[in-house]
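Q: Cof-type HAD-IIB family hydrolase, please. Structure only.
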Amino acid sequence: MYQLIASDLDGTLLNGEHMVDAYTAETLRTLEERGVQFVIATGRHYLDVMGIRDVLGIRAHLITSNGARIHSPDNELIHAEDIPANLVKELSQAEFSAGTLLNFYLDDAWLIDQHSQYLLDMHQDSGFTYRIEDLANHNGHGVPKILYIGNHAHLLEVESKLRERFGNTLYITFSMPDCLEVMAASVSKGHALQVVLDRLSLKREQCIAFGDGQNDLELLQTAGHPRLMSNANPRLMAALPNVVQIGSNEESGVAKHLRSAFNMTH
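A: Structure for Cof-type HAD-IIB family hydrolase:
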């Protein structure tokens, strides 16, 4: 049986309001009592995910900023990788950021170039919030992730510009249709999951993983038992045509699948 459960948050473990539902929290707590270990793997900020982990009520390794940061259940920093400062300064210019909400993640802060009620609403469970700054003039140091938020059609144009300019020198991916994210080239949830597996002396075959976004591709490729949400991004579904699909995040698909897999009473 699975020894490690790895899950994305938005569109996967969280409901449509980006919050934890009681059924899911109860499921994970019961499995923890049985000795199962957990990894939360997300594009969100570490400080944000700490709050969500508290709501879930479990101990879990935290893979955040799509793998640019890894923390132990005791909040020990295991791995950190930033975008080179010169690239951060280039990425923050209007050539790429025009028409988007530009976000920087730092270890101790979330910076944004303009107010967004949508983003405040999305982080209700954790209470994590942003600080508005002039990002085009930021020095570029200590930034693990840059996030462009906007209309999907426009972000596809931004993605094309980024890939043309930077090629494989950056990891560029969508976490959601309206969220285009940029990290250092060697960063991914899959690489981070392997770090955690090695730390716990577990094999891929002992891990089941859940995801819905393009940034979950490497996570699902690394886990021995990948699972796709029925609401997954079409690009991700196309890239993983043989992966088992489960219910949607709106219907607690992860919790229901785990209850069945572990023969839990419903």
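A: Brief note, in case it's useful. The two ends are 19 Å apart (CA to CA).
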